[in-house]
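step 4 of 6: structure.
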Amino acid sequence: MKQRPSPYPYWFVLPAAVVFVTLFLVPTVASFWFSMTRWDLFTAEFIGWDNYRQFFKEPFLVQGLVNTLIYAFVTSATKSVLGLLLAVLLTSGILWQGFLRSVVFFPVLVSTIGVGITFQALMHPTKGVINLALSWVGIDGPSWLSDPGLALYSVAFIDLWKGVGLATLIYIAGLAAISPDYYEAARIDGATRIQQFWRVTLPLVRPATVTVITLSLIGGLRSFDIIWATTRGGPGFSSDVLASVIYKQYQAGFYGLATAGNVILFLLIAIIILPLTWWFSSREVDL
Amino acid sequence: MTRNSLSVRQRNTGLIATAAAAVIFITPFLYIFFMAMKTKKEAALFLFSWPREWHFWSNLTEVIMARNYMLLLAYMNSTLITVGAVTLLILFGAMVGYILQRRPSGWNRLIYAGVLVGLMVPPAVVPTIWVLQGLHLFKTLQGMVLIQVAYGLAFSVLLYRSFIATIPRDLDEAAIIDGAKPLQIFVKVILPLLRPVTVTLIVVQSIAIFNDFTNPLYYLPGKENVTVQLTLFNFQSQFQSQFNLLFMNILLVTIPPLIVFVFFNRQIVAGMTAGAVKG
Amino acid sequence: MRHYPSAALLAAFALSAGFAHAETVLSVTTDGNAETVAAMEALTAAYTAAHPDITFEIENRPGGADGDNLVKTRLATGEAGDILQYNSGSLFQALKPVDTLVDLSDIQGSVIDSFKSVVTAPDGTIRGVPFGPAMGGGIYYNKKIYAELGLSVPKTWAEFMANNERIKAAGKVAVAQTYGDTWSSQLFVLADFYNVQAAVPTFAADYTANKAKYATTPAAMAGFQHLEDVYKAGYLNEDFGVAKFDDGVRMVATGEAAHYPMLTFALGNIKQNFPENLEDVGFFAQPGDDPARNGLTVWMPAGLYIPAASTHVAEAKDFLAFVASVEGCNIMIGANGATGPYLIKGCELPKDVPGAVADMMPYFQADGMTAPALEFLSPIKGPALEQITVEVGSGIRPAAEAAALYDQDVEKQAKQLGLPNW
């Protein structure tokens, strides 16, 4: 019997695959080779694993690594928790709901450079609005972006401000997909609003949670734009993350070293994300 | 629960939430807005204050006319890139997500691995430029569009895949029994149902691409290829201590994403309700 | 060179077709500094007036390390246009000039030798012409504050610190620092090189040969120590961590602060933004330990280069020869005023220079009163210096530790350049 062609033909993948392979995969694979060379863009001398050894010897690698993990954890945790709370609030039929949804999403619209310039002004230690407001209640505000102990968290806050709207949007989509019947049933069983949240909302919004956590965690681990637009990893090296350490190697002309750093960053992300994805998808089957 | 009868509790929560949102989310925008209206001297004080004199028109015209109307050219380039890239991203992303979800097989793992790699691996700039040069796409808007497609695909595929999972297979099967061809099923049955997630993707991707700075900096050099974020970057050095103009520029480059959002905002809400009905 | 607005719009709509001019268009890439842009616009306008068939397209690149990266990427991919403005000295060497830039040895007739040496490729050919004046690295001071407190220009670091103490006691900011622009934090270290060389004349050679280190050479360590000292003594402006170069210039010009360590090119900025304060600022070389040996560390101007991939080498070369002539030099002086000596033979500065320039000129006129900054004597400059100096200047890391850390940073650069002994 002749097999009928599948209604899901593989050529559907073809256009995307061509673009992706030529413009992303091929250069990436090429760069893996360059990570084994001392490369100044003009000549590449093969030096084996030296770049990897050198990268692990970077004085700020450990701090950058710790900062990367802190930053990724803080931003993804706050985005998923606050995003969900905001989404619940903004689907509960409160006053000016539509307007508030827009307001929460507005920061997503502003470019990173714009956000960087704005928050540098708002967080200025002596002239910034934040510290002026604090001074009205008698608090002498710190220098948010140039205090070595604070800078990383200040940037994480800016990231949260800019990114929570997207998390909220994904959650709102997830919440909208939950059938009202479940809430009806819960109410009949006499569940309070808080119980409804824990027993109905949280389990059923899981796909959205998975998306938000995965995306914001990967985004957090790779994060570079906002850090570069606000502190450039400073003061000194105190808000450096892996991506900014790599970028600085690149800027300094250590192209081989920078590509080796990229490979290491990729491995780090893979080590964290892949088990998480498997764990999420194995739970998906159980449902 | 009807729209007209908000409970006291809902109204109060609304008021408190509005107040909190106003402080946290709106203050920075008001700040940008006020700064953009001020004189150079007043803006240099960085205060969050009502402008003493409104210089809307003079600031606006000065920013627009700077460097031979560079901003207008930039608007056009950025719009072309964004529209082109988002269209392809929607089409390609939905096609891949569809196959990925509907046809589990060994290939599937490979595709999924590609998606993860695309999400996780930072792009390699110099080899990419070599490829673009080889294809004669370097320094062209078309090349930039394809770069944005390559970099944004993973996200689109991921989103479509999870959304297509909520569309019952019965629908495809009914169409197959009716003798529809694969492309017909996809275009006529699946694509319309993907509307909510498509709207979300249009909003998210067009904002990301319109606001992109680093990629055009590398892949699209040349004065005639300027994009809006590059104008902001250029003006940052040019308007050294003219913060009123710098903030006016921020304001102006934020308007197109705002229009996209306002335009699609209702559709997002509508799309979501449609999603809810499907359950 | 000015298009009419309608021309710009037309060009916008004819985008994919590109510019279809009959004449030659030379594309020029420069940094975005106001002085650079003004000088380049004046030069290109004058050249086009004399050669109507040659027009220019000026593109601004980011400054600092972002710009370094972009320039290297474009050179490596053959997309750097026809004329490139970029640093001389160690940064120039990092461009691999033999492979990427055109030999300009035959248009050096009017160029002073000291500049030629900082744009000479390893094969002995000269690949650039000077763009702008030489600069001094030292300390700007506010003359009004000095007069008010009866202070005199310090000849030693101890005198400088004593001045600071009196300024602080008077309730004023003694030293403005602007670590929001990280590069500006390096001044106390880099501008101390005259003093380093005075104490250890062989430092530059030994340092390149991996024989001398910052951490083990007390004279070289001093710059790091100075940074730590001014921080610890509480002499800095409150917002030193986020303030920018522009703020530093404003502070010293308007008397918000008494001192600002900076290169003399900042004078152009003062002239543009605070013309009424131009004569309130003076300038002195960074003092060392010995009042008898008080000289100035000098920075060579940036160069103009022609990328090897340019398709208009002959035209570009003719323009650069024009820049490197007395006429070109006078056009630059006309655009930006005189902020330092130009490295063109026969190009005289006008008599009525601003006070800070007048303060600087004697160093150039006497023998042995200037020394080039280390980056013009050695190809090695560690990429993390500006972060390290921010750390020292903000009290995050002690000077000794920072110097050792910088020595480690430098090693990577030396290896990348493939220098012997590393």
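step 5 of 6: annotate
 - The first helix of chain B runs from residue 8 to 37.
 - Residues 271-279 of chain B have pLDDT under 50 and may be disordered.
step 6 of 6: archive
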